[in-house]
Each structure stands twice: as structure tokens, then as C-alpha cells.
Amino acid sequence: MSHNLALINSVAPNREGEIAALSINDLTDVSAGSPSANNMLTWSGSAWSLSSDSISPQSARGYGGNTTSESGTLHTFPNPNLSNTDINRMFWEYAATQINYNSWMSSSTTNDLSFRTNGYAGGKTQWTCGFTFANSGVYAMRATLHIGGLSSSTAYIDCVWADSSYQFLGPVTRFSKSSNKRNTLRGVINANSGDVAGLYVPDYSGARYNRASYYNIFIEVERIQ
Questions:
Q1: Cα separations (Å) of 79 from 60, 85, 129, 138?
Q2: Domain 61-223, what fold?
Q3: CA separation for the pair 138, 160 (Å, rounded)
Q4: 173-194 pLDDT, tens digit each
Q5: In a 3-state reduction of DSSP, which class is residue 51?
Q6: What does the domain layout of the chain look like in residue ranges?
Q7: Where does 70-182 have alpha helices with state H?
Q8: Measured distance CA(76)–CA(207) in Å, rounded
Q9: What beta strand segments (E) does 8-162 contain?
Q10: Helix (H) or strand (E) holding 223
């Protein structure tokens, strides 16, 4: 009786049923060559081949703020300061990167993406509301935020990561004052170059701008594929 009728990639097992060590290149539909660290295989539709792309963490973060005065301005959506054709009109301006040319946020970005901002006072003041992606890829997005300190105790903003067509990229999450429990908003986007992801607001009540306690916020985008 033959013991090797079953073949694994055209290789027969020995009497103990063991298969000799195989390389990934021994698979008939794989041509990986000699990969470098963090390289990946991509599927062409008929075979796997080594991609010149690499997976590495790509992130952007915002935190900081050192002013002691809170804002009394209420959030309004759509943003009355933006035109009806501006994608950002439904995105939450969760913090200012600068006010009167003074930097109020500390950020770290990569070549993969940049903060998306709304400019006021001739560009002297910039409020951030999302990201624009320079390179294609799959990105995981996280944001731990809160509304302004002069908001009422029952005020809130319901927020969700969304693209330029306002298609949701994750679950809706509620944010309130920093003295309450701070939730984390999560989302994933399979982005092409030039795509946008912002903090879309489907519902809100009594929320005022956050200006004095940015050290309590954290926002990050990481390329995962």
C-alpha cells in the first residue's frame, strides 16, 4: 500500500507523514523572490508576488494647549462660516492648530497624510477637523476628544469618522466635557491619494468650542496596510 498518494505542493510525505521544509517560493502561485523586512505579498488576480511597498506605522497626533480661557462659541452644523460646497462644513472643529499665528497644538505627521483645517482671520487661525491622505493605503483612525469647558453638563457631540461623501467609516461615538468619561472614536479607511477623512457630526446639543484643555485630547492615524 502506498503511503504517498497525498501530495503537498507536489511533494510527498515520508513514512511518518512528514513533509520536508518548503519555502514560500515553492508554492506554485507565489513568486516572492528575496523579500526585505516588512515587505508584503500582493495578489494580481492569478498569483502572489512581492510588492515594493512596505507596511510601517504612519501616524499623526495632536495634543497640547496652554491657554486658560475657554470659548463661549456654540458649535453649529453645517458650519455657517463655510460654503455649501466645502466638505468640512459637517466636520467637527475639535481644536485649533494655531490662533493668531500662535501654535496651540503639538503635532507629528508623516508624508502619508496632513491635518485638514479651516482658516479664519486671513489664515491667522486654523481649526483642524480631519485629515487628507497623500498616499493610498488602509488607515486606522482613533480620536479621544471632548467639548469645551463652558458647555452645559448635558451638552454633547455625536461624532463618527466619515469620508468626503459623509459615508461612515466606523461607529458613532458621543463626546461631552472633559470632566466626564472620555470616549475613543475609531474608524478605518481604505484611502486613495487625495482622499479625506473627517469628524462628521450627525447630532449635537449645547456644545461649545474647546480652547483651553487640549492636553486632554489625542488623535492618531496609523497606516496598517
A1: 24, 11, 12, 29
A2: Jelly Rolls (2.60.120)
A3: 17
A4: 999 998 887 789 999 999 999 9
A5: strand
A6: 1-54, 61-223
A7: none
A8: 9
A9: 30-31, 39-43, 48-54, 61-63, 95-99, 102-103, 106-108, 113-120, 125-133, 137-144, 156-162
A10: strand 218-223
Distance of alpha carbon 122 from alpha carbon 52, whole angstroms = 43
Segments of the chain scoring below 50 in pLDDT: 1
What torsion, rounded to 10 degrees, do the Cα atoms 203, 204, 209, 215 define?
-80
User: β-strands 61-63, 30-31: how paired?
Assistant: unpaired
SS3 100: coil
Q: Is the dihedral of CA 176, 178, 181, 186 positive or negative?
A: positive
The amino acid sitting at 132 is T
Would you report the helix, strand and coil content of the chain in percent, each value rounded to 5?
5, 40, 50
